Amino acid sequence: MRTRHLENDTIINVAQLLKAPVGTERFFTVHLDYLTLDSDLGVRDVTASVRLLRTSSGILATGELHVSAHLTCVRCLTEFDNRYSETFEAEYWPTVDVLTGLPLPPPEDEDIFTIDQNHHLDLHELLRQFAILALPSYPVCGPQCPGPESLWRQEEEIVDARLAVLQALLDERP
Ligand SMILES: [Zn+2]
Question: What is the C-alpha to C-alpha distance for residues 125 and 160, in angstroms, rounded to an integer?
Fold first, then answer.
């Protein structure tokens, strides 16, 4: 089975796949230098293997993605790099009928991705959402993590600083 590669691109024209019988598959690999997750977080060197499957209602995308992230350890506040993986499965609904060009009713479930009127299926939002899921909620730099003692020391300094501010405010009161 031929696999197509997308380099720094997430858009696939699925017109032919939409015309194909239910059960038809297409395989892709994707590589992105960088993927923005939200305003202050992104991941690098994103790779994904993607299978698109023609279903009776649209296209089912399944696969696995790998991302490199630069995170801050919750225990010791050290910044570190690590690679994370996540499997994904998501449905894409066509917004127009591929044979007639007529608009189709939108999916009842708002979370379902859509294929635009030019039959372009965009993997970007799918990869973004599952890249977020791939990252740990509580990143720890590794088994060699010096532990929270170093964090406590920093917290004490912050508390000391806050108390100093509070004391200064109190001192200012007439
Ligand atoms: Zn750590």
Answer: 43
